[in-house]
Every structure is written in C-alpha cells, then in structure tokens.
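Handout, page 2. Input:
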Amino acid sequence: MSEPTGVIHDIGYQRYTGPRLGRRQVFGALYLHGLRTAFGLGRSAKAKIFPWLVVAIVTVVAAGVTAVRSQIGEVVMTYAQFADNMSWLVIFFAAVVAPELVSRDLRSGVLPLYFSRPMPRSDYPLAKLLAMITALWLLLGAPQLVMFLGAAFTTGDGMNGVWNELLDLLPGLLYAGLWAAVFASIGLLVASLTGKRAFAAGGVVAVFLMTTPIVGTLSIMPSQTLNELAGLASPSTLVQGVGAWSLGDLLITGDAAEASHSLIGDFGPVYAAAAVLLIAGCVTLLLARYRKVATR
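Output:
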C-alpha cells in the first residue's frame, strides 16, 4: 500500500500589520451602524419602507403647519406641541427599531463576537441606546427645523423675529430629546429581553398603550392629589407633565396652558424627578441584562 500523502496549500492568509483600532472606534462603529439600521440604510428596500414612511409623515405635517402659518400669520402649532402630537408615531417607530437594534443580535447569537473585541460589556448596549435616542430625536427634531426655516423666512420682524423664533425652537428640540430618551430607554430594555422581534415589538407597544387606561382611571378618582399625580403612571403622560411644568407657554398657549398646569398642580418637580429616575432605571437594567448575556 502506498504511503498517505498530504499537501499544504498556500491560500494567501497573512497577519494583519495595520493599525489596531481601540474602544472609541469600536463604540463609534456600533453607534453609526445602529443609527443606519434605525432608518434602514444599508439594508433591503423592505427594511426602509416603515422608517421612511414615518419620516415622510412627520415632514408633511411640519410642512403643512408651516404653510398654514405663512397664510394666516399666526402660530398653528408650537415646536413643543409638534413633539407631543407626533408622539404616537414615535411609539410605533420605537417598537420597530428597538428589535432591529438588539433582538436580531440575540436571535442570531453574534453577541460573543462583539464581546470578543477590546470592548467593555457596557459599550454594546450604550452604543445601541445612543443610536436609538439619536434616531428618535432626529425624527422629532428635523421637522421642527423645517417649521423654523419656514417661520424665519416669513417673519416680518427681520433678524429680531428670527432670533425670537430660534428661542422658541431650542426648548422644542430639548423637549424632543426628552421624548427620545424616555422612549428609547424603555423600548431598548423591553426588546433586549427576547430574540423574537414580533414579541419585542408587541412588548414595546404594550408598555406604552396599556399604561394609558391607568392614567385615565386615576384621573377620575375623588382625590385631587391622585388626579394630579396620575400622569406618572404612563411614560407618555410623564413626559407631557415635565413639558407642562418646564416649558409652560412654549408648549401650550392660552386657556389650554392653564388647563395643562392644573392637571399636574404643583407636582412638576416630581414629574421631572420621575422622568430622570425612569431613564436611569431602564439604563441600569439594560446594562445588567447585557452583563448576564455576555457571561453565558
């Protein structure tokens, strides 16, 4: 019998001798990839349909509000009001985006590859969270910029009018950031609990929509204090309570402003503290979740 022989083929593998990027570059790459994923960039045409449909809706609304204001010469919707009125769309956007950012990685089992890099375990969820906050803020903030540009070009007060309009815009953008932070932290936490995107999306929607009846029930209780604190039971009304307290007439004008203030009474600081604690709690649980996933 002939001796078994073997041949070693040189297929061109070489050691990498270039620069090795560190933690900052890895975090930045994760953040940028997450932001692109939120809007379906770099993915199939099917993945782009929903996010860009939502973008189109909020842009059309902003353009319509701007056009009406230019015709009648009066503010139809403030910048902060725009964020409030579009919040229902943000709920569904978050329900679709959050599972795309984290549930797919859980289901496909690629997390060990991420954590094999020179990256602390906390960087993965924080990069995803920052990407989602940015996406939601752009969704609410970019249309406000459209409204600002329309108002700036139609104001009759020159640069003074543009400056006053800018002073109204900035609080609106900050308010949009609060919406984004609350929705992203809750949405990403819920989505991180399962690798099935359908379950994750349903869970995100349930958290926001199923808490609304609780607010309604507490609002009709005989206790005035309980009525004023009812908004704490739902993330959406919690953010609106913070807005009513901090923005005042920049959020709602006229008689509606007084009605809004009466809904939360003197508990504005309580709403603000609750919002901070909610975000901090969700982020803490999210980090704890990925410490557990990483050690499996």
